[in-house]
Structures are given as structure tokens and as C-alpha cells.
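[job 0412] stage=fold_complex status=start
inputs:
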Amino acid sequence: MSYIAERREEEKERRRAEIVDAAERLYAEKGWDSVTMDQVAKRARLSRALLYVYFRDRDELQFAIGERALEMLRMRFLEAVAQHGRGLDQVEAIGRAYMRYAQDFPHYFDVCARFQAHSVSPEPGSNEGACAVKGDQAIAVVVEAIRAGIADGSIRSDIGDPGLYAVTLWAFTHGVIQLATAKSADLARFGIAIPDFSEYALSLLRALGSPRTG
Amino acid sequence: MSYIAERREEEKERRRAEIVDAAERLYAEKGWDSVTMDQVAKRARLSRALLYVYFRDRDELQFAIGERALEMLRMRFLEAVAQHGRGLDQVEAIGRAYMRYAQDFPHYFDVCARFQAHSVSPEPGSNEGACAVKGDQAIAVVVEAIRAGIADGSIRSDIGDPGLYAVTLWAFTHGVIQLATAKSADLARFGIAIPDFSEYALSLLRALGSPRTG
DNA sequence: CTATATATTGACACGATGTCAATAACGCGC
DNA sequence: GCGCGTTATTGACATCGTGTCAATATATAG
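[job 0412] stage=fold_complex status=done
writing structure:
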């Protein structure tokens, strides 16, 4: 009987994944605001009511996508770190990775932004909580790179607490990406192209951590 | 007869302002998401249908509040600039002003954030367009302070185009405030207090522009 | 084959948005 | 004061999306 329950569990997990798949595709196609539960249900070829068996409400479904988004982000961060030796270069690579990520998966960045903008209501067992955990794991990669940088001397040691520095860099970078993605037209009107903007921001951030340049 | 039309126009403007007042109060009380047109109408003591005479839809009403928000922000920036002589200090004061502003009027910052996150659909004559203009005016203050700083030598001259620098600083600061307001609980869990976070970010930004320190 | 648990659905109630024809208020010529 | 055109204001409607629940279908066990 345990075998049965196990298979049931797997089926359930698969169904859940199918739903998230459908929702994610629609998210990428038209933006979350114009995705309805009905559309998700249709795309996943099941009834709308069933969605509410797997997800408390629409928000929880979005957070389920957010979980994937943050997991993917962490992966990209890890790849970025792996390709560089010195901490400073790793941190810069993380910034670049975040920017590429936002370009490659706009809907993932969107859900990250929403997650970061809305303050949490820490209901235990919710997907929102899972997002928070994934977010912590992603930022932990940054902290580690900063630590490495301070240790190998590529990042100035008087930068302060690595955690604080990591969070600040995160906020900076996130702000830049958000502005770049949402206001590219206005920036162009200002004579600013997105790639230039990104590179400029990255160079400033590198200068910030670098011990010699100033 | 022109007199009549003029008075009519004024009445109309007043009505409009009353509606925005009502909407803004509700915004501040409960956040925009849980404000309904019905509630706005009730608070302004008129029928819901009339709101749609003054504002195309709910979004336009929010953008009307956004217009006020950005105007207020510009005022704060101007005050901040006026209280300092050197450009570098002016720029830092602008950053501080933005942070205080977000603390004093959370709903204003919220509408700024939403405006900045959503990409514009440039329908002429809309309040959204007016927001964009007000936003430009606010950032123009920053640009001017940077120019002054480069001129008086308090800001390193190799910082590049003042417009680009201004936009970048804006993005940085906005990102910090957003994270600070939305995730104060999580930051606390990381052992980071909001005032410390803000001060830290400001000190980093100051170091960025300062020619000597590095 | 029946009984029991689980998965799935159709249909409902509710709430919010946006529209429109109908009504009320106003200024005006008489 | 009285109709009359114009403008302001509203009630009622249609539409859509969410979340819930009892009812049905499906699978498992005895």
C-alpha cells in the first residue's frame, strides 16, 4: 500500500509541474497580469477548479514559478562563479549573470522583481516561503564570492560585512536591471542605450569593490 | 459666457482633485491593490460612474497620484540641493531625501516604484505621460547637481556623462529603498537593520563619486 | 461487486471593472 | 417663471475573473 501512495505522490507532483509549466509559458507570453486561471487550466488541459487543489490561489501559483526562477538564478550565479578565480571577478560575473538572466528569461526576472517588491506574509508551508529560501540561497553565493575576494585580496577588506555588501550589490544591480527593462524607451530618449547603461553600472560596481582603483 | 466656462473648468479641476484626494488617502491606508473604485467614489461622495468621466480607468487614477508623487519628490530634491554647496554633498543629500521621502510617504514611493517597473504605453494626453514628464524633471535635478559637482571639483570628472551617472545613481538608490521597504523583515533576519543598510549604501555611493577616497 | 477514498469537475456566489442610456442640474433666451 | 439645450451625475447592466463546494467520476481495497 505504501507503493501506491508513493506512485500517487509522484503523479501529484507531475500534475503540479504540468500546471506550473502551463502557467509559466503563459507568463512568458503575455505577462502575469493578463494570465487567467482559466487560461492556465485550458493549457494544462484540466479544469480550473483543479488548480485550486494544487495551489491555494493565483499568487501561490506565481510563487511556484518564482521558486523555479530563483533556483535558475542561483544556478547561473554558480556557473558565473565557477568561471573565475578571483573573488572580485566572480562578483562582477554574478552581476553580469543577473543581467543576462533578465534578458534570457524576462518573466523570471519579472517574478523576482515582484517577489522582491511585495513584503512577505510569512505563512508557513506556502510557496512564498519557499521563494524566500531560494532567494537566500542565491544571495549566499554572492556572499561567498565576496568572502573569497576579501581573502584573495581582490576586494578591499574595509568594505565591511560581506552580507551587508552582498545585499547592497544585489539591490543596486536589481535596480539597474529593473530600470533598464522597464524604461529602455525613456533611456533611449535620454540618449542612453541599454548595453551601455549595463556596462557603465557594472564598471562602477567593480570600482566600488576594487581596492586599488578609485 | 467665457466666465462661465472658466468657472466650470475650475469646478471640474476641483472635482478631479477631490477624487485624487480620496484615492490617495485610501492608497496610503491600505495599498493600491485593495482600493476599489467603489471605495474611492464613496469617500469622495459621488457615484462610481463619475470617476470614469474624470479618469479613463483605474490605472489612470493611479498615475494621477503618481504625478503628485513625482512632483513632491522633485520638491524634496530641490530642498536637498538648496541646503548644500558642493555638488557631491548635493547628490548625497538627494539620495538621503529619496530615502526620507519613501519613509514619509510610503504610498508615494510605492507608486513611483510601480511606475518605474511597468513599461510605458505612450498614449498621448494620458496621466501616464504626465508622470514620465515629472520623472524627467526630478532626474534633471540630479543631473544638475552632478554637473555642479564636476564643476566645483567635488565629483570626479572621469565619472562620465552626468545623465548616465544620474540614471545609474537613481537606479541604485531606488533598488536599495525598494529592498529596504519590502524586505525589512528578511534583512533583519540577516542581522541587517534598515538604517544601517541605508547609511551603508549612501556611503558607498558617496565613495563612488568622490575623487579622492577609494 | 460493493464500499471507501481520492481525483476531478460543473455550477454557483461574489466582487470588481467599465459602459450607457436615463435623469438631474444648470445657464439662457424669452 | 418657463421651456430648452448643454453639461453633470447616476443607476443599472453586461462582462469577466476569482475562489468554493457539492456532485460526479475514477481508482483501490476488502
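[job 0412] summary: Residues 142 and 166 of chain B are 6 Å apart (CA to CA).
[job 0412] exit 0
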